[in-house]
Design a protein that fits this description.
The complex is a heterodimer. In chain A, helix 12 links the parallel strand 6 and strand 7. Chain A is globular, with a radius of gyration of 19 Å. Chain A is of the alpha/beta class. Chain A has an 8-stranded parallel barrel with strand order 1-2-3-4-5-6-7-8, surrounded by 5 helices. Chain A is about 40% helix and about 10% strand. Chain A has a single domain, classed as TIM Barrel, CATH 3.20.20.70. Helices cover about 40% and strands about 15% of the residues of chain B. Chain B is globular. Chain B has one domain: Alpha-Beta Barrel (TIM Barrel). A 5-stranded parallel β-sheet of chain B has the order 5-4-3-10-9. Chain B is an alpha/beta fold. The chains are: A alpha/beta, B alpha/beta. Chains A and B meet through helix 4 and strand 9 of A and helix 3 of B.
Amino acid sequence: MNLPAWLNPEPWLNRTFTAADVQHALGAESPDEETLAALLSPAAADFLEPMAARAQALTRRHFGRTIQLYVPLYLSSWCSGGCAYCGFASDRQTDRHALEFDAVEKELVAIKAMGFEEILLLTGERSHKANLDYLRECVKLAARKFHNVTIEVFPMSGNEYAQLAEAGATGVTLYQETYHPETYDRMHRWGPKKDFFQRLEAPERALAGGLRFAGLGALLGLADPRHDMLALYRHARHLQKTYWQTGLTISFPRIRTEAGGFVPPHPVDEKMLAQIIFAFRIVLPDVPLVLSTRENAAFRDGMAGLGINKMSIASKTTVGGYGDRGSEEGQFDVSDTRGLDEFCAMLRSKELEPVFKNWDGVYRLTA
Amino acid sequence: MLKLGNVEFKSRLILGTGKFSDTATMIAAIEASGTELVTVALRRFNRDKPSDDLCAPLAKLKGVKLMPNTSGAMNAKEAVRAAQLGRELSGSPFVKVEIHPNPHHLMPDAIETYLAAKELAADGFIVLPYIPADPVLAKKLEDVGCAAVMPLGAAIGSGSGLSTAEMIKLIIRDSNIPVIVDAGLRAPSEAARAIEMGCDAVLVNSAIAAAKDPVAMAKAFALGVKTGYAARQAGLMPKSDIAVATSPLTSFLK
């Protein structure tokens, strides 16, 4: 299976970059694939400090001294998918839950009380418990309380996305996991997720359906990170050109050793992750870059404002985690377990303002 | 005096309120700037969480008027809704119409801005639209009752300065309402130049909020604006790059 020409990163993968190429890329006036490939290259590993300085300057210019905060809410751990790396895959022995609507309401109340205004609703692959009807109701409940409601769920049809937009959803996060088709096929052992292109094209269907923000990403660790990051960049640029009114965000989730003993075949260490984030800030200076609580506190503190301008905090990856079931096994282990106040105090000590509300429900389709 | 609608301002510096590291710095910068008008995005109003709310601390400032803006709106319909909600929440008749459908480069949508401005002016708002530096659009906005036009000097947050200077000069030449350069300025010298050129005021945000010392930079911008205005009052000497020829071209004239 071949990647379409607009996505294929191969032309930039077989080049060897020198220190001079990296320096040239650092000063690029119109960054492109060549710039990114140079900044992701082994030669750029010696330039982390100047890359960080450039990333910080660009972040400050476009986003100021602010960090936008959001929080995930896991609605259901039922999943028909067979992702080899996921703690919620259908062959894992784990207690399954889906929040009933009154329990959803309870979680929403608890999260709202913490002060969040942007909430990300998550489910696994489509299941008898978590289907479109269920999700639409959950979006409606959330939109009553939160200005910005986004979803990270199974890929849907354009018509289904339109229904969620009408219910009050504003954005969709959907990681391709890996842009390497053979790896993708190996990692996704069964179910609808096996279809690479059905997933790849989902953000476009969502945007055509009326959602206005799209979050992209690849799970770092599954395939050669340079391949995946170049393809991710090309995917983002493709969407920017096709859906020019879209607000994109990009996340950098690193896959960890999960329940079931999955060991990532292409581990990405902290330095490489930082290099990737700096490189993305340089080539996409005005796109929000996101870092979740998968990463540890020290790394997150260091990266805040250094490329990263949007973060989650106080996250529970268990279904019902904000209420009664806080201690069960989640989809992945939260590494930064700090509470909201502690995290905000850290941001302020770095002269960064935590921003909870950066959008208004008045701009919603349904408003 | 700068007159916007029926309100007069001594200061020709307007401040944006985003991008600051904390509320205290924002307030200190506003006070240091001597501004009497600040703009605040409706999306940063937060009635549910006072520590996240930009509106309440600004409303408390003496001698500073609030101008809600519609940043986040993608079209005229959304901007009108946002303006109405902003007026309801802030009690201010001012609105900065800001419509940028592309959330990355934040360039203003001329067509939607015109439609929203027309509707809001008819609804009694004091309307200040943020626009591309387009002299024709500026006149059309004047015709529908805007209190001023705010052409961009360069992209928001770019710090590229007065890259649209020639277009802004054309806007100034024919305008009967104040012309305020909004966006793109990086240095106080650029603010001085905008005022020297004939702009009535400048709106600055990133250049102050992202400076190493925002409060000191706010003061510097106040000085820049004052210097520019004083220079304009003093009358700049004419520019002349025409050398006088040693053999006069007009010696044949009797």
